[in-house]
From TrEMBL:
It comes from Caldalkalibacillus horti. This is ATP-binding cassette subfamily B protein. The chain crosses the membrane at residues 74-97, 109-129, 188-208, 214-231, 308-333. PROSITE patterns: ABC_TM1F, ABC_TRANSPORTER_1, ABC_TRANSPORTER_2. InterPro entries: AAA+_ATPase, ABC1_TM_dom, ABC1_TM_sf, ABC_transporter-like_ATP-bd, ABC_transporter-like_CS, P-loop_NTPase, Type_1_exporter. It holds the Pfam family ABC_membrane. Keywords: ATP-binding, Membrane, Nucleotide-binding, Transmembrane, Transmembrane helix. It is found in: Cell membrane. The lineage of its organism: Bacteria, Bacillati, Bacillota, Bacilli, Bacillales. Gene3D superfamilies: ABC transporter type 1, transmembrane domain (1.20.1560.10), P-loop containing nucleotide triphosphate hydrolases (3.40.50.300). Residues 74-355 form the ABC transmembrane type-1 domain. It is a multi-pass membrane protein. One of its GO terms (molecular function) is ATP binding. It comes from the Bacteria.
Length: 631
């Protein structure tokens, strides 16, 4: 408690002089026991992101809302009706005091009470209807936003995902959009209702007593300057809170996905410590965001009491001078309470709106990312009904980072139906060539031709439709075995799936599963062996019937018997197809038509297995070193 009070007073002092900053806690800070965590500006820290475009973000949100114009119009009608009814109630109470209670008119008072009952029933009904319709609009809006964001993610290039934490992207799809949803559910109605109520209250108060109205308005400048001071700081704090929430979600997703590695290396304590640091950062950001936004209702309550005191004091004086009636004082007292309530609502909703805009902006940042298809296609893209499979690299160079040399001046030619293998040490550029061939990335210089056409003139979707992949880490989705194989071609029949599984030597083990092809696999395919996953991946590739085949360490970490099954299945799959194989175990590529030996991003040797052995170069040494290891 004392620590938070100390921080609080330091923030108040610093906030009066300059915009609010606070130090983000690092893992090193966490390990230094007893050090202060005063929220001060961190030297050398990057500048915090602000909401870049208020009006633009709000216009885009309105674009989603405007689709439901009819329901939105009904909501506005109900908001206007409820605001009028809310103003009518206190006015009738004041009139009842002056015209019926003071005059001892019981029948007139009963009529007013009946009228009040009807008014408040209609008020309740209008509130329920506007909330019901607005919730429906809000849910449709966020459904559209979430669907658009999810669909757009599938159009983004691989480099985008390489540079982003997956959990942080998940946070944008879930937390940020949910933030927009909760704001639309309540804030839209409250803001509009509060504005209408304020206009109505001021109009009636001026009509009843301009002088008492002016005295009541003394609190307005205090509210304005107090709100300005508070909201100046809350916007950045809510943005920071959302950023830390995304970072924490990303870390959790990463840790849960890599739980086997965490346990295998006994790093539970380390990841727990990192989690505590990120959680502490989120807690600190949330604490100060909510603390500053919490000033608003306290300020409003204080000014509300001040306004009520002014009305009671000056209203009593005016009543004694017979300038106003007792009923008018009651109306003013009730309206003063209603006057500060919409101001309070506007202030609170402003903070909520800040948080929602920050979340919406993070969503729109992803939606505005350039989609993959527009990234580098130079001319009108061409399509193929069938690829022959002729591939040629001409003086191709590429680097993942500017100034790097991942591959340099690579040139080779592959005839249709040939098998090409890439070998070399880690980091030599083997996977990079495959990434370029798949158009996950585009060349920095040089050319890559497919059937004589520049690869950038072929639509990525069209190119990948003719490609099949069998990777080292076979990814299986949560679903049945049948659904995972059908992922290669969604229109395949059950019989075609079974035939593909037989060609992949997977049919026999599938039939031994509890439900055969209808056995449900969990995420990642846990419950079956790595070799069985590979066989399912091969069956998926066979079903796709590709012209170009990519094999990335497809037999690594597999026992000898399973490897023979996989090799047999791969030979069937590769027959008649242009195949590109990445291999560390050279015994699996001896039949390849061409073997490319890469080192430091360049081809240093090229030829068949026998030709490379006769050269007695790098490949010769690598092959015999592996042969000795086996013996």
């Amino acid at each position: 408690m004392l620590k938070h009070l100390s921080e609080f007073f330091q923030i108040i002092r610093k906030g009066l002089i300059e915009p609010f900053h606070y130090k983000r806690i690092s893992l090193k800070d966490e390990e230094k026991k007893g050090e202060s965590r005063t929220p001060l500006k961190q030297e050398g820290a990057p500048k915090k992101k602000k909401i870049k475009n208020w009006s633009g973000t709000l216009k885009r949100i309105w674009g989603y809302l405007a689709v439901n114009r009819l329901q939105l119009s009904l909501v506005l009608v109900m908001v206007i009706l409820s605001s009028v009814l809310a103003l009518l109630g206190p006015f009738l109470i004041g009139m009842a005091i002056d015209n019926y209670i003071v005059e001892w008119d019981a029948s007139g008072l009963v009529r007013v009470l009946i009228g009040l009952a009807i008014i408040y029933l209609m008020y309740s009904l209008s509130i329920w209807l506007q909330n019901y319709w607005m919730i429906a609009i809000a849910q449709k809006t966020v459904y559209t936003m979430r669907t658009q964001l999810f669909n757009h993610l599938h159009k983004l290039p691989i480099p985008f995902f390489d540079k982003r934490q997956h959990g942080e992207l998940m946070s944008r799809i879930t937390n940020d959009i949910e933030n927009v949803s909760s704001t639309l559910n309540s804030s839209f109605i409250q803001i509009f209702s509060s504005v209408l109520t304020l206009l109505g209250i001021v109009s009636v108060m001026l009509w009843l007593s301009p002088l008492l109205t002016l005295l009541t308005m003394i609190v307005i400048p205090m509210m304005f300057f107090g709100m300005k001071w508070i909201t100046k700081r809350t916007g950045k704090l809510f943005k920071e809170q959302q950023r830390h929430l995304g970072s924490l979600n990303g870390f959790i997703e990463e840790t849960v996905s890599g739980q086997r590695i965490v346990k295998a290396f006994s790093q539970e304590e380390k990841v727990t410590r990192e989690f505590l640091v990120k959680s502490e950062n989120l807690k600190t950001a949330g604490f100060w965001a909510q603390t500053f936004s919490g000033f608003i209702p306290k300020l409003m309550n204080m000014l509300n009491n001040l306004s009520f005191t002014i009305i009671a004091a000056m209203g009593g004086v005016f009543a004694l001078l017979e300038l106003i009636t007792i009923g008018t004082i009651v109306i003013f007292a009730e309206y003063s309470r209603q006057f500060t309530r919409p101001l309070n609502d506007l202030a609170n909703q402003f903070n909520t709106l800040l948080s929602a805009i920050a979340g919406a902006e993070r969503v729109f940042e992803i939606i505005d990312e350039e989609p993959e298809e527009k990234e580098s296609t130079k001319d009108k893209p061409i399509s193929f009904d069938h690829l022959k499979g002729e591939v040629e690299f001409v003086q191709a160079s590429f680097s993942y980072e500017k100034g790097g040399n991942t591959i340099r001046n690579i040139s080779f030619h592959v005839q249709p139906g040939q098998t090409v293998a890439f070998v070399g040490p880690t980091g030599a550029g083997k996977t990079t060539i495959i990434n370029l061939l798949s158009r996950f990335y585009d060349l920095d210089s040089g050319s890559l031709l497919i059937d004589g056409h520049e690869i950038t003139s072929i639509k990525r979707e069209e190119l990948r439709k003719h490609m099949g992949f069998v990777l080292q880490d076979s990814f299986l989705f949560q679903g049945t075995v049948r659904e995972n194989i059908r992922y290669g071609r969604l229109d395949a029949t059950d019989q075609e799936i079974v035939e593909a599984a037989k060609l992949a030597n997977a049919h026999s083990f599938i039939m031994k599963l509890s439900q055969g092809y209808d056995t449900v696999l969990t995420h990642g395919g846990s419950g079956i062996s790595q070799g069985q996953k590979q066989l399912l991946s091969i069956a998926r590739a066979i079903l796709a019937n590709p012209s170009l085949l990519i094999l990335d360490e497809a037999t690594s970490s597999i026992d000898t018997i399973t490897e023979l099954k996989i090799q047999e299945a791969l030979e069937r799959l590769m027959k008649g197809r242009t195949s590109f194989v990445i291999a560390h175990r050279l015994n699996t590529i001896q039949k390849a038509d061409q073997i490319m030996v890469l080192e430091d991003g360049q081809i240093i040797e090229q030829g068949s297995h026998e030709e490379l052995l006769q050269q007695q170069g790098f490949y010769h040494g690598l092959y015999h070193s592996q042969l000795r290891e086996v013996m």
